[in-house]
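Thread: quick sanity check before group meeting

JM: Hey all, I'm pulling together slides for Thursday and realized we never actually wrote out the predicted structure for the chain we discussed last week. Dropping the sequence here so it's in one place. If anyone has concerns about the input, flag it before I start.
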Amino acid sequence: MYEQNENPWNDSQNQQNQQEPFRRNPAPGNASNGLAVAALICSILSIVSVCCLYGAFVFGGLAIIFALLSRGSRKKAAGPARTALLLGTAGVLISVVITIGSFISVSRQYGGFDKFLERYTYTLEHNFGIDLNPNGSDSNTDNGNNNSGSDSIFDLNGSQEAL
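JM (edit): ok, ran it. Output follows.
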């Protein structure tokens, strides 16, 4: 019935067939879908928060990192990872352009960033009563007194006076 070398209890082919359903090897394309989805979510948040300077940088940077990590050992990224890479990069670049444009606009309007800070300080002190002087003793804030001889560098119309 059985040949001498054959053992019905130790069939190697039967053992392989029984263990295949219990293997936990992921499919080749599904191993990095979690990172690709995370990258896609971060890239969408980067585009949405492009007007908030830090949000776009953080989410865009995370999107780029997750998209590159989701590639794994493959040469090309999957569809969601590729989209996330493009959107994350676009979010960071748009935020950089808005930031540079803001600094250029402030520089042109006020004649430099230091003049902008002077005007900002003046506005806070005179319109809102916030004292930015750390000493507090020689404040130039307008506390209801209309002194015509104040040492302010701006008059009430916003134009500069000669000191």
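AS: nice. Helices lie at 12-19, 33-48, 53-71, 79-110, 113-127. Residues 146-150 have pLDDT under 50 and may be disordered.
JM: adding both to the slides.
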